Amino acid sequence: MFKFHPLVISFITAYGLMNPATHAWSAVLKPFTPELNDNRAGLFCVCNGSTQTLSGSQQFAPGRQGLQGITVGELLSTGRLISDDNLIGADRLSLGGQNATITLPDANGSGSNRVQVYNSNLMSALPSVDTTTELPNYLNVNDGQYIDARVAQVSNGTINVEIGEAGAATTAATNGWTMAAKQSQLFTASGSGNMNWNADNRITFTGAYTPYVYQLGYSVDNAVTYNGAFSVTTLDNATTQFRVSSLSDLQSYNDWLVDQLRAGNLSGSSYNSEFNKALSFSSGVIAYVIDADDLNDEIAQPVGDRVVLSADGPGAKVKINAGKTLEVVNASNGAVRATNGATAIINGKLAITGDPSEYNSALELAGGSKGINNGVINGGFFNQADGTGVDGSTLGDGGNTVFAHDNSQFTNNGVINYVISPSSYGAALWLTDSRAINNGNINLGVTGATAGSLVAGVMLDRDGSSFENAQGGTIYLGRTPQNSLTDVTSDVAINRSGETSALF
Protein backbone atom coordinates (compact mmCIF):
# COMPACT_ATOMS: atom_id res chain seq x y z
CA MET A 1 0.00 0.00 0.00
CA PHE A 2 1.41 3.37 -1.01
CA LYS A 3 1.37 6.19 1.51
CA PHE A 4 2.39 9.84 1.09
CA HIS A 5 5.40 10.87 3.10
CA PRO A 6 4.14 13.21 5.86
CA LEU A 7 6.58 15.94 4.85
CA VAL A 8 5.08 16.35 1.41
CA ILE A 9 1.46 15.37 1.87
CA SER A 10 0.23 18.97 1.74
CA PHE A 11 1.33 19.59 -1.84
CA ILE A 12 0.94 17.89 -5.17
CA THR A 13 3.37 18.96 -7.87
CA ALA A 14 1.81 19.31 -11.28
CA TYR A 15 4.65 17.80 -13.30
CA GLY A 16 2.78 18.28 -16.56
CA LEU A 17 3.25 22.03 -16.11
CA MET A 18 7.01 21.83 -16.10
CA ASN A 19 8.82 23.98 -18.65
CA PRO A 20 12.04 22.11 -19.55
CA ALA A 21 13.83 25.27 -20.66
CA THR A 22 13.27 27.22 -17.46
CA HIS A 23 12.72 24.36 -15.03
CA ALA A 24 9.47 26.05 -14.00
CA TRP A 25 7.11 23.88 -11.99
CA SER A 26 3.75 24.38 -10.34
CA ALA A 27 2.57 23.08 -6.98
CA VAL A 28 -0.93 23.24 -5.51
CA LEU A 29 -1.51 23.92 -1.84
CA LYS A 30 -3.38 21.19 0.02
CA PRO A 31 -5.06 21.32 3.46
CA PHE A 32 -3.07 22.36 6.54
CA THR A 33 -4.24 21.54 10.06
CA PRO A 34 -2.63 22.08 13.47
CA GLU A 35 -2.96 18.38 14.23
CA LEU A 36 -0.95 17.27 11.18
CA ASN A 37 1.33 20.20 10.40
CA ASP A 38 3.40 20.95 13.50
CA ASN A 39 7.19 20.86 13.34
CA ARG A 40 7.33 21.80 9.63
CA ALA A 41 5.40 18.74 8.51
CA GLY A 42 3.98 19.19 5.03
CA LEU A 43 6.42 21.88 3.93
CA PHE A 44 7.09 22.40 0.23
CA CYS A 45 10.84 22.57 -0.42
CA VAL A 46 12.78 23.80 -3.45
CA CYS A 47 16.52 23.11 -3.34
CA ASN A 48 17.38 22.15 -6.94
CA GLY A 49 17.70 25.56 -8.54
CA SER A 50 14.26 25.45 -10.18
CA THR A 51 11.54 28.10 -10.19
CA GLN A 52 8.23 26.88 -8.83
CA THR A 53 4.85 28.48 -8.24
CA LEU A 54 2.79 27.62 -5.17
CA SER A 55 -0.86 28.30 -5.95
CA GLY A 56 -4.41 27.33 -5.10
CA SER A 57 -6.96 28.64 -2.63
CA GLN A 58 -5.95 28.84 1.01
CA GLN A 59 -6.82 25.68 2.95
CA PHE A 60 -5.54 26.45 6.44
CA ALA A 61 -7.64 25.22 9.35
CA PRO A 62 -7.78 28.07 11.87
CA GLY A 63 -7.00 26.02 14.95
CA ARG A 64 -7.97 26.97 18.49
CA GLN A 65 -7.32 30.27 20.19
CA GLY A 66 -7.38 28.73 23.67
CA LEU A 67 -8.76 31.82 25.36
CA GLN A 68 -12.24 32.95 26.26
CA GLY A 69 -13.81 35.19 28.86
CA ILE A 70 -15.38 34.22 32.14
CA THR A 71 -17.29 36.65 34.34
CA VAL A 72 -16.64 37.28 38.00
CA GLY A 73 -20.24 36.20 38.58
CA GLU A 74 -19.51 32.81 37.00
CA LEU A 75 -16.42 32.43 39.14
CA LEU A 76 -18.42 33.19 42.26
CA SER A 77 -21.31 30.90 41.38
CA THR A 78 -19.03 27.96 40.54
CA GLY A 79 -16.71 28.36 43.52
CA ARG A 80 -13.71 29.15 41.34
CA LEU A 81 -12.81 32.46 42.98
CA ILE A 82 -9.83 31.95 45.29
CA SER A 83 -9.29 35.51 46.63
CA ASP A 84 -9.95 39.08 45.55
CA ASP A 85 -8.03 41.42 47.91
CA ASN A 86 -11.34 43.28 48.40
CA LEU A 87 -11.10 44.55 44.84
CA ILE A 88 -14.51 43.36 43.66
CA GLY A 89 -16.83 46.35 43.87
CA ALA A 90 -14.05 48.80 44.80
CA ASP A 91 -14.09 52.26 43.21
CA ARG A 92 -11.35 52.90 40.67
CA LEU A 93 -10.05 56.27 39.58
CA SER A 94 -7.83 57.91 36.97
CA LEU A 95 -6.39 61.28 37.96
CA GLY A 96 -5.11 62.11 34.49
CA GLY A 97 -1.61 63.48 34.25
CA GLN A 98 -0.25 65.94 36.79
CA ASN A 99 0.73 68.27 33.99
CA ALA A 100 -1.50 71.34 34.27
CA THR A 101 0.86 74.24 34.98
CA ILE A 102 -0.24 77.25 37.00
CA THR A 103 1.67 80.37 37.97
CA LEU A 104 2.01 81.33 41.62
CA PRO A 105 2.28 84.88 42.94
CA ASP A 106 5.83 86.12 42.31
CA ALA A 107 7.19 86.29 45.82
CA ASN A 108 10.90 86.46 44.94
CA GLY A 109 10.85 88.37 41.66
CA SER A 110 12.18 85.43 39.69
CA GLY A 111 9.10 85.07 37.54
CA SER A 112 9.55 81.29 37.63
CA ASN A 113 7.13 80.24 40.36
CA ARG A 114 5.26 77.53 38.54
CA VAL A 115 3.77 74.30 39.81
CA GLN A 116 2.17 71.35 38.08
CA VAL A 117 -1.23 70.26 39.34
CA TYR A 118 -4.02 67.88 38.41
CA ASN A 119 -6.72 69.09 36.07
CA SER A 120 -10.05 68.32 37.75
CA ASN A 121 -11.77 68.01 34.38
CA LEU A 122 -9.48 65.12 33.44
CA MET A 123 -10.21 63.08 36.56
CA SER A 124 -12.49 60.17 35.74
CA ALA A 125 -13.94 57.04 37.27
CA LEU A 126 -12.61 53.76 35.91
CA PRO A 127 -14.85 50.70 35.61
CA SER A 128 -15.08 48.78 38.85
CA VAL A 129 -14.65 45.04 38.91
CA ASP A 130 -18.12 43.60 39.47
CA THR A 131 -20.01 40.38 38.71
CA THR A 132 -20.27 41.30 35.01
CA THR A 133 -16.53 41.90 34.58
CA GLU A 134 -14.96 39.40 32.21
CA LEU A 135 -11.58 37.90 33.09
CA PRO A 136 -9.40 35.74 30.83
CA ASN A 137 -9.96 32.01 30.97
CA TYR A 138 -7.36 29.84 29.24
CA LEU A 139 -8.33 26.44 27.85
CA ASN A 140 -6.50 23.29 26.84
CA VAL A 141 -6.32 23.30 23.03
CA ASN A 142 -5.66 19.56 22.63
CA ASP A 143 -3.25 19.82 19.69
CA GLY A 144 -5.30 22.65 18.22
CA GLN A 145 -2.42 25.10 17.67
CA TYR A 146 0.30 25.10 15.02
CA ILE A 147 3.77 24.82 16.56
CA ASP A 148 6.75 25.50 14.26
CA ALA A 149 4.56 25.47 11.16
CA ARG A 150 6.31 25.84 7.81
CA VAL A 151 4.45 26.06 4.50
CA ALA A 152 7.32 26.42 2.05
CA GLN A 153 11.07 26.93 2.00
CA VAL A 154 13.66 27.48 -0.70
CA SER A 155 17.43 27.12 -0.37
CA ASN A 156 18.41 27.06 -4.06
CA GLY A 157 15.94 28.39 -6.58
CA THR A 158 12.75 30.47 -6.48
CA ILE A 159 9.26 30.00 -5.11
CA ASN A 160 6.49 32.31 -6.32
CA VAL A 161 3.67 32.35 -3.78
CA GLU A 162 0.32 32.81 -5.49
CA ILE A 163 -2.14 31.57 -2.89
CA GLY A 164 -5.71 32.64 -3.51
CA GLU A 165 -7.73 33.98 -6.40
CA ALA A 166 -6.15 36.66 -8.57
CA GLY A 167 -7.98 39.96 -8.21
CA ALA A 168 -9.89 38.89 -5.09
CA ALA A 169 -9.86 40.91 -1.88
CA THR A 170 -7.26 40.05 0.74
CA THR A 171 -10.14 38.96 2.99
CA ALA A 172 -11.86 36.72 0.42
CA ALA A 173 -12.38 33.14 1.54
CA THR A 174 -9.83 32.05 -1.08
CA ASN A 175 -7.18 34.58 -0.02
CA GLY A 176 -7.45 35.34 3.71
CA TRP A 177 -6.92 32.92 6.54
CA THR A 178 -6.49 32.60 10.29
CA MET A 179 -3.89 30.43 12.00
CA ALA A 180 -3.48 29.70 15.69
CA ALA A 181 0.28 29.53 15.18
CA LYS A 182 3.31 29.89 17.40
CA GLN A 183 7.06 29.65 16.86
CA SER A 184 6.39 29.66 13.13
CA GLN A 185 8.02 31.11 10.00
CA LEU A 186 5.63 30.20 7.21
CA PHE A 187 7.59 30.93 4.01
CA THR A 188 11.38 30.99 4.24
CA ALA A 189 14.40 31.50 1.99
CA SER A 190 17.97 30.51 2.84
CA GLY A 191 21.18 29.78 0.95
CA SER A 192 20.63 31.20 -2.54
CA GLY A 193 16.86 30.98 -2.34
CA ASN A 194 14.30 33.56 -3.46
CA MET A 195 10.74 33.75 -2.12
CA ASN A 196 8.40 36.07 -4.05
CA TRP A 197 4.95 37.10 -2.84
CA ASN A 198 2.71 37.37 -5.89
CA ALA A 199 -0.72 37.40 -4.25
CA ASP A 200 -3.13 39.50 -2.19
CA ASN A 201 -3.64 37.99 1.26
CA ARG A 202 -4.57 38.78 4.84
CA ILE A 203 -3.18 36.42 7.47
CA THR A 204 -4.46 36.66 11.04
CA PHE A 205 -2.38 34.99 13.71
CA THR A 206 -4.08 33.79 16.86
CA GLY A 207 -3.17 31.29 19.55
CA ALA A 208 -3.14 32.27 23.19
CA TYR A 209 -0.33 31.50 25.60
CA THR A 210 -0.22 31.15 29.34
CA PRO A 211 2.68 29.87 31.43
CA TYR A 212 0.19 29.08 34.20
CA VAL A 213 -2.37 26.32 34.49
CA TYR A 214 -5.01 25.52 37.09
CA GLN A 215 -5.16 29.05 38.49
CA LEU A 216 -4.48 32.61 37.40
CA GLY A 217 -4.05 36.03 38.94
CA TYR A 218 -5.75 39.09 37.42
CA SER A 219 -4.10 42.37 38.42
CA VAL A 220 -6.30 45.34 39.32
CA ASP A 221 -4.84 48.79 39.94
CA ASN A 222 -6.09 52.29 40.69
CA ALA A 223 -8.48 51.14 43.40
CA VAL A 224 -9.28 54.31 45.33
CA THR A 225 -10.26 54.95 48.93
CA TYR A 226 -11.65 58.39 49.69
CA ASN A 227 -10.42 59.43 53.13
CA GLY A 228 -13.51 61.30 54.34
CA ALA A 229 -12.98 64.14 56.85
CA PHE A 230 -9.75 66.14 57.18
CA SER A 231 -8.60 69.74 57.42
CA VAL A 232 -6.14 72.07 55.66
CA THR A 233 -4.40 75.04 57.24
CA THR A 234 -3.28 77.64 54.70
CA LEU A 235 -0.51 80.23 54.90
CA ASP A 236 -2.96 82.86 56.17
CA ASN A 237 -3.53 80.62 59.24
CA ALA A 238 -7.07 79.75 58.19
CA THR A 239 -8.16 76.15 58.78
CA THR A 240 -10.79 74.66 56.48
CA GLN A 241 -12.65 71.40 57.05
CA PHE A 242 -13.32 68.99 54.17
CA ARG A 243 -15.08 65.70 53.59
CA VAL A 244 -14.10 63.87 50.40
CA SER A 245 -16.09 60.72 49.70
CA SER A 246 -16.62 60.80 45.92
CA LEU A 247 -15.09 61.89 42.64
CA SER A 248 -17.10 65.10 42.58
CA ASP A 249 -15.91 65.90 46.13
CA LEU A 250 -12.31 65.32 45.00
CA GLN A 251 -12.72 67.58 41.98
CA SER A 252 -14.15 70.37 44.15
CA TYR A 253 -11.34 69.95 46.67
CA ASN A 254 -8.68 70.05 43.93
CA ASP A 255 -10.22 73.23 42.50
CA TRP A 256 -10.04 74.79 45.97
CA LEU A 257 -6.35 73.84 46.29
CA VAL A 258 -5.59 75.43 42.93
CA ASP A 259 -7.42 78.61 43.95
CA GLN A 260 -5.36 78.76 47.16
CA LEU A 261 -2.13 78.34 45.19
CA ARG A 262 -3.06 81.19 42.89
CA ALA A 263 -4.03 83.37 45.83
CA GLY A 264 -0.68 82.78 47.55
CA ASN A 265 -2.29 80.98 50.49
CA LEU A 266 -0.61 77.65 49.72
CA SER A 267 3.00 76.92 48.77
CA GLY A 268 3.71 74.97 45.63
CA SER A 269 5.74 72.41 47.57
CA SER A 270 2.75 71.51 49.75
CA TYR A 271 0.28 70.85 46.94
CA ASN A 272 0.92 67.10 46.68
CA SER A 273 0.79 66.44 50.41
CA GLU A 274 -2.44 68.39 50.80
CA PHE A 275 -3.97 66.69 47.76
CA ASN A 276 -3.07 63.24 49.11
CA LYS A 277 -5.03 63.90 52.31
CA ALA A 278 -8.16 63.26 50.27
CA LEU A 279 -7.49 59.75 49.00
CA SER A 280 -5.23 56.74 48.76
CA PHE A 281 -4.68 54.16 46.03
CA SER A 282 -4.15 50.42 46.18
CA SER A 283 -3.72 47.51 43.82
CA GLY A 284 -4.00 43.78 44.11
CA VAL A 285 -4.77 40.48 42.44
CA ILE A 286 -7.94 38.50 41.89
CA ALA A 287 -6.98 34.82 41.98
CA TYR A 288 -9.21 32.23 40.35
CA VAL A 289 -9.30 28.76 38.78
CA ILE A 290 -9.01 28.48 34.99
CA ASP A 291 -9.90 25.58 32.68
CA ALA A 292 -6.36 24.97 31.36
CA ASP A 293 -4.86 22.24 33.54
CA ASP A 294 -2.12 20.61 31.46
CA LEU A 295 1.37 22.09 31.27
CA ASN A 296 2.10 19.81 28.30
CA ASP A 297 -0.75 21.27 26.28
CA GLU A 298 0.13 23.66 23.46
CA ILE A 299 -1.59 26.51 25.34
CA ALA A 300 1.56 26.56 27.52
CA GLN A 301 3.91 26.94 24.52
CA PRO A 302 5.32 30.49 24.15
CA VAL A 303 4.32 32.50 21.09
CA GLY A 304 7.81 33.12 19.67
CA ASP A 305 7.87 33.89 15.94
CA ARG A 306 4.81 34.69 13.88
CA VAL A 307 6.62 35.50 10.66
CA VAL A 308 5.10 35.16 7.19
CA LEU A 309 8.12 35.81 4.93
CA SER A 310 11.69 35.32 6.12
CA ALA A 311 15.14 35.23 4.55
CA ASP A 312 18.29 34.07 6.30
CA GLY A 313 21.84 34.42 5.00
CA PRO A 314 23.61 36.74 2.54
CA GLY A 315 22.33 34.99 -0.59
CA ALA A 316 18.70 34.74 0.48
CA LYS A 317 16.00 37.17 -0.62
CA VAL A 318 12.28 37.71 -0.03
CA LYS A 319 10.16 40.12 -2.01
CA ILE A 320 6.59 41.41 -2.15
CA ASN A 321 6.06 42.19 -5.79
CA ALA A 322 4.52 45.36 -7.21
CA GLY A 323 0.72 45.43 -7.19
CA LYS A 324 0.50 42.72 -4.49
CA THR A 325 -0.58 43.11 -0.86
CA LEU A 326 0.34 41.20 2.28
CA GLU A 327 -1.63 42.15 5.42
CA VAL A 328 -0.75 40.51 8.74
CA VAL A 329 -2.55 40.66 12.08
CA ASN A 330 -0.54 39.95 15.26
CA ALA A 331 2.82 39.32 13.64
CA SER A 332 5.61 38.65 16.12
CA ASN A 333 9.24 39.45 15.32
CA GLY A 334 8.35 40.82 11.91
CA ALA A 335 5.70 39.93 9.35
CA VAL A 336 8.62 40.01 6.90
CA ARG A 337 12.09 39.39 8.30
CA ALA A 338 15.65 39.27 7.00
CA THR A 339 18.52 37.96 9.12
CA ASN A 340 22.27 37.34 8.83
CA GLY A 341 22.87 39.43 5.74
CA ALA A 342 19.69 38.55 3.84
CA THR A 343 17.64 40.98 1.76
CA ALA A 344 13.95 41.93 1.95
CA ILE A 345 12.36 44.08 -0.75
CA ILE A 346 8.88 45.62 -0.65
CA ASN A 347 7.72 46.60 -4.13
CA GLY A 348 4.03 46.13 -3.34
CA LYS A 349 2.19 46.76 -0.07
CA LEU A 350 2.97 45.35 3.38
CA ALA A 351 0.69 46.17 6.32
CA ILE A 352 0.45 45.10 9.95
CA THR A 353 -1.86 45.70 12.87
CA GLY A 354 -2.67 43.90 16.08
CA ASP A 355 -2.38 43.78 19.82
CA PRO A 356 0.52 45.67 21.46
CA SER A 357 1.61 42.49 23.25
CA GLU A 358 2.62 40.86 19.95
CA TYR A 359 5.79 42.93 19.30
CA ASN A 360 4.38 44.03 15.96
CA SER A 361 6.76 44.91 13.15
CA ALA A 362 5.99 44.89 9.46
CA LEU A 363 9.63 44.54 8.44
CA GLU A 364 12.44 43.42 10.73
CA LEU A 365 16.09 43.48 9.69
CA ALA A 366 18.77 41.85 11.83
CA GLY A 367 22.39 40.77 11.69
CA GLY A 368 23.66 42.95 8.87
CA SER A 369 20.61 42.48 6.65
CA LYS A 370 19.26 44.88 4.06
CA GLY A 371 15.73 46.12 3.47
CA ILE A 372 14.39 48.27 0.63
CA ASN A 373 10.91 49.75 0.42
CA ASN A 374 9.90 50.82 -3.07
CA GLY A 375 6.21 50.42 -2.33
CA VAL A 376 4.04 51.01 0.74
CA ILE A 377 4.38 49.86 4.36
CA ASN A 378 1.44 50.53 6.69
CA GLY A 379 1.77 50.26 10.46
CA GLY A 380 -1.24 49.90 12.75
CA PHE A 381 -4.02 49.70 10.14
CA PHE A 382 -5.21 48.25 6.86
CA ASN A 383 -6.68 50.18 3.97
CA GLN A 384 -10.36 50.15 3.09
CA ALA A 385 -11.66 47.60 0.61
CA ASP A 386 -10.73 49.86 -2.32
CA GLY A 387 -7.11 49.94 -1.17
CA THR A 388 -7.14 53.54 0.09
CA GLY A 389 -7.64 55.40 3.35
CA VAL A 390 -8.00 53.71 6.74
CA ASP A 391 -10.40 50.90 7.64
CA GLY A 392 -11.28 51.97 11.19
CA SER A 393 -12.17 48.42 12.21
CA THR A 394 -8.54 47.39 11.70
CA LEU A 395 -6.90 50.07 13.84
CA GLY A 396 -4.37 48.57 16.21
CA ASP A 397 -0.76 48.72 17.26
CA GLY A 398 1.90 49.63 14.71
CA GLY A 399 4.79 48.78 17.02
CA ASN A 400 8.06 49.53 15.32
CA THR A 401 6.77 49.23 11.80
CA VAL A 402 10.26 48.95 10.33
CA PHE A 403 12.77 47.68 12.90
CA ALA A 404 16.44 47.49 11.88
CA HIS A 405 19.05 46.32 14.38
CA ASP A 406 22.50 44.74 14.66
CA ASN A 407 24.27 46.57 11.84
CA SER A 408 21.43 46.34 9.31
CA GLN A 409 20.48 48.94 6.72
CA PHE A 410 17.18 50.18 5.34
CA THR A 411 16.35 52.38 2.37
CA ASN A 412 12.92 53.94 1.95
CA ASN A 413 12.14 54.95 -1.62
CA GLY A 414 8.40 54.59 -1.12
CA VAL A 415 5.84 55.40 1.56
CA ILE A 416 5.56 54.43 5.23
CA ASN A 417 2.21 55.25 6.90
CA TYR A 418 1.99 54.97 10.69
CA VAL A 419 -0.98 55.18 13.06
CA ILE A 420 -0.55 56.59 16.56
CA SER A 421 -2.87 56.09 19.52
CA PRO A 422 -2.96 56.91 23.25
CA SER A 423 -1.23 53.58 23.94
CA SER A 424 1.37 53.91 21.19
CA TYR A 425 5.04 53.46 21.97
CA GLY A 426 7.20 53.00 18.92
CA ALA A 427 8.24 54.44 15.59
CA ALA A 428 7.57 54.16 11.91
CA LEU A 429 11.31 53.39 11.61
CA TRP A 430 13.32 52.23 14.64
CA LEU A 431 17.11 51.91 14.34
CA THR A 432 19.32 50.08 16.81
CA ASP A 433 22.99 50.04 15.79
CA SER A 434 21.80 50.34 12.20
CA ARG A 435 21.51 52.93 9.46
CA ALA A 436 18.81 54.16 7.11
CA ILE A 437 18.18 56.65 4.36
CA ASN A 438 14.81 58.15 3.47
CA ASN A 439 14.22 59.10 -0.14
CA GLY A 440 10.46 58.80 0.18
CA ASN A 441 7.62 59.77 2.53
CA ILE A 442 7.10 58.82 6.17
CA ASN A 443 3.62 59.84 7.33
CA LEU A 444 3.21 59.80 11.10
CA GLY A 445 -0.28 59.93 12.60
CA VAL A 446 -2.39 59.16 9.55
CA THR A 447 -5.72 59.24 11.41
CA GLY A 448 -4.99 61.99 13.89
CA ALA A 449 -5.08 60.97 17.56
CA THR A 450 -3.54 61.64 20.92
CA ALA A 451 -0.04 60.30 21.39
CA GLY A 452 0.02 59.05 24.95
CA SER A 453 3.71 58.19 25.17
CA LEU A 454 6.77 58.16 22.91
CA VAL A 455 6.05 58.08 19.18
CA ALA A 456 8.51 59.03 16.43
CA GLY A 457 8.83 58.99 12.70
CA VAL A 458 12.42 57.79 13.11
CA MET A 459 13.98 56.60 16.37
CA LEU A 460 17.73 56.22 16.85
CA ASP A 461 18.25 54.47 20.16
CA ARG A 462 21.99 53.71 20.03
CA ASP A 463 25.11 55.73 19.24
CA GLY A 464 25.83 53.26 16.45
CA SER A 465 22.68 54.26 14.55
CA SER A 466 22.52 56.81 11.78
CA PHE A 467 19.79 58.29 9.61
CA GLU A 468 19.84 60.46 6.51
CA ASN A 469 16.76 62.26 5.25
CA ALA A 470 17.87 62.69 1.66
CA GLN A 471 16.85 65.44 -0.70
CA GLY A 472 13.25 64.75 -1.56
CA GLY A 473 12.72 62.71 1.62
CA THR A 474 9.80 63.84 3.80
CA ILE A 475 8.73 63.06 7.37
CA TYR A 476 5.24 64.47 7.89
CA LEU A 477 3.40 64.65 11.21
CA GLY A 478 -0.34 64.42 10.77
CA ARG A 479 -1.64 63.63 7.31
CA THR A 480 -3.74 60.92 5.69
CA PRO A 481 -2.06 57.80 4.25
CA GLN A 482 -0.65 57.59 0.75
CA ASN A 483 -0.21 54.74 -1.71
CA SER A 484 2.43 56.60 -3.70
CA LEU A 485 4.74 59.55 -3.25
CA THR A 486 2.44 61.79 -5.27
CA ASP A 487 -0.93 60.76 -3.78
CA VAL A 488 -3.10 63.69 -2.73
CA THR A 489 -3.33 63.83 1.06
CA SER A 490 -4.82 66.07 3.73
CA ASP A 491 -3.71 67.18 7.19
CA VAL A 492 -5.09 65.61 10.37
CA ALA A 493 -4.75 66.87 13.93
CA ILE A 494 -2.40 65.23 16.44
CA ASN A 495 -2.71 66.02 20.13
CA ARG A 496 0.89 65.81 21.25
CA SER A 497 0.23 65.10 24.93
CA GLY A 498 3.06 62.59 24.87
CA GLU A 499 6.37 62.88 23.06
CA THR A 500 5.69 62.92 19.31
CA SER A 501 8.47 63.89 16.95
CA ALA A 502 9.70 63.39 13.41
CA LEU A 503 13.15 62.30 14.63
CA PHE A 504 14.02 61.22 18.14
Mean pLDDT rating: 91
Oligomer: single chain
Proportion of β residues?
Answer: 35-45%
Number of extended strands: 41
Number of helices: 3
- In angstroms, what separates the terminal alpha carbons? 65 Å
The helix-and-strand class reads: mainly beta
Task: Offer a concise description of the structure.
With 504 residues, this protein is mostly beta strands.
Q: Which secondary structure elements does this structure contain, and how are they paired or packed?
A:
Layout: E1 11-13, E2 24-29, E3 44-46, E4 51-56, E5 67-71, H1 72-77, E6 81-83, E7 92-94, E8 100-103, E9 114-117, E10 124-126, E11 134-138, E12 146-147, E13 152-163, E14 177-182, E15 184-197, E16 200-206, E17 215-226, E18 228-233, E19 239-244, H2 247-263, H3 271-275, E20 279-289, E21 306-312, E22 317-320, E23 325-329, E24 336-339, E25 343-346, E26 349-353, E27 363-366, E28 370-373, E29 376-379, E30 400-405, E31 409-412, E32 415-418, E33 426-432, E34 435-438, E35 441-444, E36 449-450, E37 454-460, E38 466-469, E39 474-477, E40 494-495, E41 499-503
Parallel strand pairs: 2-4, 3-13, 4-13, 12-14, 13-15, 14-16, 15-21, 15-22, 16-23, 21-24, 22-25, 23-26, 24-27, 25-28, 26-29, 27-30, 28-31, 29-32, 30-33, 31-34, 32-35, 33-37, 34-38, 35-39, 36-40, 37-41
Antiparallel strand pairs: 1-2, 5-11, 6-20, 7-10, 8-9, 17-20, 18-19
